[in-house]
Amino acid sequence: MKDPKILEIVNTVLANNDLPLIETLDRGFDLRNDLLLDSINLAELTVRIEDEFGIDVFEDGLIFTIGELMDKINKA
Amino acid sequence: MVVFYKSKELAFSYDDLIRMLNETKSFQLDYQAIGFIDFALNTLVGVLTHQNFILNDYLFAPPSLSKSENISVNINLEDLTDLITQIKSSDATIGIYSSGSEGSPKLIYQPIARFLKSVKVSEEYKNTNWAFTYNPSHSAGIQMMFQTLLNQACLVALQKVNRTSIYDLLEKCDYISATPTFYRMLAPYNQEVERVKNVTLNGEKSTQKLIEDLKLVFPNAKMRNIYGSTEAGPLMSSDSIDFIVPSRLEGKFQVIENELHFHQSLVSNSVNSKEWYPSGDLVEIVNEHPFTIRFISRKSRILNVAGHNVNPQQVEEYILTHPSVLEAQVLAKEHKLIGNLLTAHVKLMPQEILSEKDLLSYLKKTLPAYKIPRIIKFTDDIAVGRTGKKSI
Fold it and tell me: Is the pTM for the entire model greater than 0.90?
């Protein structure tokens, strides 16, 4: 199950950018509006995800929520 | 016995050099040497027989079959004085691969006279030892070879040598010329090398901090920071990071959109047909009178990060101000969302511990968000290219 690792990576990006951490992966969380990630932070998140799982989560277009992120990773 | 070349494994004398040159009966225009002696012999045969030939990297390139046919040659040297005389009267041209202003290698032919023009001959250099740090197949390396040969001095090989051995070999040297990347291998700068009289920095932008650190290692040496290029050769020197353009170059430099341009009279015809040749070096004008410039970085390194122009070399320099950091390389990962994401490889000082989080906190004190490398990897090895400079 990849969820614990996804949570760890998301919180790494949040911590590195002085943003509030999350305790669980709420599928409804919007990456920009709820997690407050800007473009550079999102780019960092996708690069870390790609380094860990070998998946380009933006391959088919932008994603906006934690749920979409998890689906991309777990279906691959 | 006067030695021409010394490494950890061997000492090769001028007598050996003359004898082997006289014994050489064939030459190749595009030769892949095995080791320095082989390289030097082929290069000198090419010079002595007035060829137009290519220098190939033997230090970093994998061994391969030589690419060109054998040409018959006949060399007759009486002694070292005869060798030097014949070198000086050669009209050979040498092809060297340079990084070019656009980043991709270009083959540039230079007449041997251009290298010899920059050689300083002096009685004080005879029988002295010169630290040999450059790749011999590149401009600075071949220049160093002629500098020592025409002065009947000795090259002490320091390429691909570890830190402890570097210090051991430096104890035997009188002069050293190297890139800032090479000098950073001497860190921590807690050993003194008293014998060295002259320290030259060349090939990359230096920082004032590095110059000050090297004064600790070489307490009796005069410092020289050299600016030059493969296309134009060595151009000017300074004892700091600011270069006062000498009067002989008045009217030969122009700064256009922060990029230094050379007048065509300074540049080999094989690379330039315009009046002003772009050097690929970004500069800052420090003073108008006297005209003084400071180098910022190579132009090819400017990146777009989320709509902002970023110079990764400046970011590297800031990372290097952290006391625990020995070496840093900032890289760009292409990203469809923001153009490029900055990442960094960082090598720490021996025994130092630093976390990614702590380094990021340090960087955030001064750098705007778009200049901060988002992924930092700590490594023992920063990639260094064939020229001895950090690879981009």
Answer: no
